[in-house]
Amino acid sequence: MKSVKNHLSLVIALLSILFSMQVFIMAERSIEAYKVNLANNYSIIAVSQKQLKSNEILSINKIILKAQELSPDSVIKRLSSDMKSSNVELLKLTLPKFYKITLAYYPTPQEIKQLRNDLLNSTAITKVEDFSHTHDTTYKLLLLFKNIVTIFAAVVLVVTILLIFKELRIWQYKHNERMSIMGLFGAALWLRSAVLFRLAIVDALIASFLAFGIFTYLSSSIWIKEQFEYIGINIVIFNPIDDFLMILGVAMSISIILASLIVLGHKEEA
């Protein structure tokens, strides 16, 4: 029963690290996917007094993906209810040209400011509407969400590592007499500490496979998929190969490093 309790405490601690790490990865993927979605729906309007070719606008800034001239027909239709056809044609000639500029990715506020300056520095463009207020608010919300998730993951990582270190230290104290006796008989340090490393490795494997099962279930959950569909994004919640190998590597690394620190500390005390 005590052995199960020792394993359980370490497994839960490791599992909490792996869970928070995978949640952080999911948040990163969600933010990147949402940025792509925002980039597809976000555009800038540029006004010019003359006809511009698409490559002229594309050459202004590398962030510009494409430029499309907007038809003035919808605006003219509202104004030309009582106008003669000749006046309508004249109005079409005098109206400035409007261009919808689509960006390659969702930019930062600094990139938006630079793009606006680059467009206005062009002699052909007289006005730019970049919807900067709405853009800045959305970008700051994304950044705030990312920072909150990062801080949460970092706090969980630090606290849990301290708990794992404490659990391994307690285990060492319980077996201190056995390790000392083996030392008197000339057993090497790694041999005396083999059980500690075995405990750390076994618990890392158990935690990794539990995390694999939990996230495999979550990735197939209809409710989870619906939540992402509500905000218009589709991400890989859990990659059974890449994500599992990363989880396994992190769990093994943390366990072995902490066990090694405890063993070296015991050596110094001897």
Report what the structure shows.
The chain is α+β, with helices and mostly antiparallel strands and 270 residues long. It has 2 domains: 2-37 and 138-269, no CATH class; 43-130, Alpha-Beta Plaits. It contains 11 helices and 4 strands; from the N terminus they run H-E-H-E-H-H-E-H-E-H-H-H-H-H-H. The longest helix is centred in the middle third of the chain and has 43 residues, at 132-174. The model has no long low-confidence stretch (mean pLDDT 78).
Cα-atom radius of gyration: 30 Å
Which percent bin holds the helix content?
over 70%
Indicate the mean pLDDT: 78
Number of helices: 11
Strand content: 5-15%
| Global morphology | elongated
Total number of beta strands: 4
Q: Return the string of H and E elements.
A: HEHEHHEHEHHHHHH
- Give the structural class: alpha+beta
Q: What is the straight-line distance between the termini?
A: 30 Å
Structure keywords:
11 helices, four-stranded antiparallel β-sheet, alpha+beta, Alpha-Beta Plaits, 72% helix, 2 domains, 9% strand, 270 residues, elongated, 4 strands
Quick description:
The protein has 270 residues and is of the alpha+beta class. The protein contains eleven helices and four strands.
Give the topology.
Blueprint: H1 2-41, E1 43-48, H2 54-58, E2 64-70, H3 73-79, H4 85-94, E3 97-103, H5 109-121, E4 125-129, H6 132-174, H7 176-184, H8 189-192, H9 194-219, H10 222-230, H11 242-269
Antiparallel strand pairs: 1-3, 1-4, 2-3
Helix pairs in contact: 1-6, 1-9, 1-11, 6-11, 9-11
